[in-house]
Structure prediction request, 316 residues.
Amino acid sequence: MIDLNASRVNHHSFILTGIPGMPDKNIWMAFPLGFLYTLTLLGNGTILAVIKVDQSLHEPLYYFLSILALTDVSLSMSTLPTMLSIFWFNAPEIAFDACITQMFFIHGFGVAESGVLVSMAFDRFVAIQDPLRYASILTHGIVGKIGIVVLTRAVCVVFPVPFLIKRLPFCHSNILSHSYCLHQDAMRLACASTHVNSLYGLVIVIFTLGIDALVILFSYILILKTVLGIASRAERLKALNTCLSHICAVLLFYVPLIGVTMIHRFGKHLSPIVHTLMANVYLLLPPVLNPIVYSVKTKQIRRRITQVFQRRKNRA
Prediction:
């Protein structure tokens, strides 16, 4: 046991890590990261603008897509301050309270995005299972209530995390292993038992992300069962095609998440650069690629974006 009275240090700040072992190379990451953040803002901003302007897109599917875009932007903005401070200004220090705040928003928007993906799976199930009653089941009011439930759930399950971290004594090192603050990363620096933190983190993963993944899987089993009951092959393909964008979004969210979890649990022998790369991919990849996927795979959005560019070209 560590003598807490002798060794306890209440750190007022943490030190974030850019490229492990190569701090002089941080500047080379500044430009790719800046490019990715720019793509995130432009892509999701375009999706939001197109849905707002085009009255034909004022449907449940596109409302959920708007919520997904807002969540992606918010998640990216949660990591932006520390990313910029490290890679652009070579200032890796972050105040303890600022780190806890960032931790809350990163985990909160992560849980919210998972909830939005579940909502979109429900939307696709209703659209294929009962297309004639689709508009009457998923009214604007119902969509709004679903959005509120998703956000409220995220806030409620992540709300205890800052307090669980705040109660821990920190001693010796205050160097985090990522360029942003995560619960599991800060927890390992504590010099007291972290069983409660670990247990609560596991509960969150199982009862939010884990159950969400199972619900999405079950939804698609029901969707596939319904589609296979359609007589026309062309109609079957058309029905499945409406789900492709959502399937891609689900994979973009859960595959990197599983990868980060597996590396964190079983890849301790791997290079720290691998851990950093996977952690950045997990948070940066979905916000960048989701707008591209929906722009390419959704005919209505693609057509609207094409019309906007054609008008600008004609004016020029």
